[in-house]
C-alpha cells in the first residue's frame, strides 16, 4: 500500500504523540471573574477593511472592564481614520513600522495601563464573555497566559477556507489537550490571548507568539487553553495567500527547535521536532518501502503498511473528533481532502520554508465577512 502524501507516510512519528494527547488530559478548574481590568492591544498594518468591526464587537461587550489600544504599524490606508472614529479607542501611530507584529505588540504593551493584557488580531471578533473567561486563570502565579480557540469566519467561501477551518479545528483540539497534560504545553495563538503585562515581551520573530510561549515555559510558567473561549477570524481565500501565510509560520517555527531545555515538557519538544522533520521522514519511508518491495523484504513492507494504517486511522479520527467538538459542519469529502491535499500543501510549504523570506509576509485582507 503505497503512501500517497507525506501525512500518510508509514513513518508518521507524530501519530504516536497524537494518540497520547487523545488518551490523556484533565481540564483545569477556572476561577471566577471579578471584573479585573484588561488592556486590549490590537496591532494593525493596512487593516481598514476589518478593524472597525473588530472594535465594534469589543464595545458590544458591556460587561468587560477594558481599555482598547490600536497600534498602527505604519499603515498606508485608512486604518488610523477608522480606528480613531471610536471615542473609546486609543490609537498609537508607529511611523517607523514594518518590522513585524512583535514590534507593534511591544509598543502596545508599553502603552497599556492595566496589569492584564489581551492580544487580538485586527480581524478577530471575540465571542461574548470569552475574554472574561480567560482573565481568572491569571490569578495563579504559575500561569503566564490563557488563550481561547480560533474559528474561521469565512469558512464557506471556497475549498481553501473550508480546509483552513478544519485545520484550525484540529489545531484547537490539540492545543486544548496539550494544556491538560503536564508534559506538553500549548503555544499562544497570537490572538484571543490574555497575558500578564510584565511577561509580555515579544521577541523579534516570524512567530513571536510561539517563541514567547516557549520562553515562558522555560522560565517555569504555564499556558492554559479554554475551549469555551473563542473568537473568529478570516482565513486566506486564495492558494497564493495560503501558501504565503503558512510558509511564514513554517519558517518561523524552525526557531522553536532551540527551546529544548525544559525537561518538564520533553514530550512537547519531541513532538515539535518530529512535526518539523516529518516531510524528511516521509521521503525516508518511501525509500524504505520501495527498497523492501524490490528486495522482497515483505516483513518490512508489512510493518510499514500497518504503520500507514495506524497513522491514517488516527488522523481521520482526530479530524472527525475535532469537527464534532467544535460544531464544525465538515463533509466527509472535506475531511478526506484535508487528509490528502493538506499534507501535500504542507510539503510544499515545508520546502519553501527552507529558503530565506523577504519582509513580514503579512496576509492582506481586502474585505470582511459576517
Write down the overall mean pLDDT.
88
Strand order of the largest sheet: 3-2-1-4-7-6-8-5
Distance between the termini: 44 Å
User: From N to C, what is the helix and strand string?
Assistant: HEHEHEHEEHEHEHEHHHH
The named CATH superfamily of the largest domain: Spore Coat Polysaccharide Biosynthesis Protein SpsA, Chain A
SS summary, helix count: 11
By DSSP, the count of extended strands is 8
Query: CATH class of the largest domain, anyone?
Result: Alpha Beta
Q: Kindly name the structural category.
A: alpha/beta
The shape, in one word, is globular
In total, how many domains does the architecture comprise? Answer: 2
Rg, please? 21 Å
Largest sheet: 8 strands, mixed
Note the topology.
Layout: H1 14-23, E1 38-44, H2 51-60, E2 66-72, H3 79-84, E3 89-93, H4 101-111, E4 116-119, E5 125-126, H5 130-134, E6 143-152, H6 159-178, E7 193-196, H7 208-218, E8 222-233, H8 239-253, H9 266-294, H10 298-325, H11 332-352
Parallel strand pairs: 1-2, 1-4, 2-3, 6-8
Antiparallel strand pairs: 4-7, 5-8, 6-7
Helix pairs in contact: 1-10, 6-10, 6-11, 8-11, 9-10
Describe this entry's structure for a reader:
- The protein is of the alpha/beta class.
- The chain has two domains: 6-22 and 264-352, no CATH class; 37-235, Spore Coat Polysaccharide Biosynthesis Protein SpsA, Chain A (Alpha-Beta Complex).
- It has helices spanning 14-23, 51-60, 79-84, 101-111, 130-134, 159-178, 208-218, 239-253, 266-294, 298-325, 332-352, and strands spanning 38-44, 66-72, 89-93, 116-119, 125-126, 143-152, 193-196, 222-233.
- Strand 2 (66-72), helix 3 (79-84) and strand 3 form a beta-alpha-beta unit.
- Helix 1 (14-23) crosses helix 10 (298-325) and helix 8 packs across helix 11.
